[in-house]
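The records we work with from here on pair a chain with its fold. Each token is a code from a learned vocabulary of local backbone shapes. A record is reproduced here so that you can trace the correspondence yourselves:

_____
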Amino acid sequence: MIEIFDARVNTTYDTKTGLYTTQAVIADVIIQATITTTLPTWRERGSASQAEQAKWDGYLEQLKGFQAEHAKDTFVRLDQYRSSLLGLRGTGSGNTRESAMQMAANQINAKYSEAKNTLFQNYNADGKRRDANGGHTIRPY
């Protein structure tokens, strides 16, 4: 998974207090993800009867459908994850511009880590829920 962030950062300096203040916000996020599904193959398929081949083909179709549902779950969760990142804000202040910016970045990073943890927790819960609700109803060959 690749994440590309567009952040808006504004830093001001207060001459009365001598402090820099930085406000940062995540304005946009692009998430790129590739899902690869590797299906089993049956090397001796050609020497099997048509009935056995049809049974195998039916199994593969069920498996493809099942895996497609996992992929669908993944993309739904990635969309939710992206939405949770949009608008994340961080504010920092300090005696230097760099310290103010670092404080703002640290706040955003903490929120980012929380959002990513939520993504993985939800994704894993989806798989468990699918399994618990008869998700694995594929009839083995």
The first helix runs from residue 50 to 85. Helices lie at 50-85, 97-132.
